[in-house]
Amino acid sequence: MAEIYVMSNVTIDENTVSGPEVVDSAVGFALCTGLLALCYAAYLSKLILAAPSGSAKMKEIAAAIQEGSKAFLVREYTWLAGFVGVVSVIMLLAISMTTAIMFLLGAVISGTPSDFQLAL
After folding, report:
1. Where, by residue number, does the polypeptide cross the bilayer (predicted)?
2. Which site from 6, 52, 66, 89 is most exposed, i.e. has the minimal number of CB atoms within 10 Å?
């Protein structure tokens, strides 16, 4: 088994080195790749929205799909809101208010992209 040395927030074993400078570069890499992904998504959205809509029948089918998707999401979010409410009350009572608020915030943020997707 390899020995691991820990000193001043830097961990060294025979294969890896981790510490503040490694974490900083990992965070920078994650931010850069995330920004690159958002730029690519914006490019693809622009490309798709610039394409022709298609025939009247295709537009009719697309409208029906969009209507069904909206109805599904309204139903799903209605049930999900109840579930999230119950779980956040349990978290409030069992853990802390901060945990319950962060759970609610996470639920809202994770549901937001689907609203934007349907708007496109």
Report:
1. 26-49, 79-109
2. 52
Tell me, yes or no, whether 39 and 66 share the same domain: no
Lowest mean pLDDT among 11-15, 22-26, 67-71, 98-102: 11-15
Range of the domain at 13: 1-51
Please state, in angstroms and as integers, the Cα–Cα distance from residue 108 to each residue in 16, 21, 37, 39, following that order. 38, 33, 22, 24
Asked whether the whole model's pTM tops 0.85, one would answer no
Q: Are residues 44 and 77 in the same domain?
A: no
Q: How far apart are CA 85 and CA 101, in angstroms?
A: 11
What is the tens place of the pLDDT at every residue in 31-78?
889 999 999 999 998 998 888 888 889 999 989 998 998 898 889 889
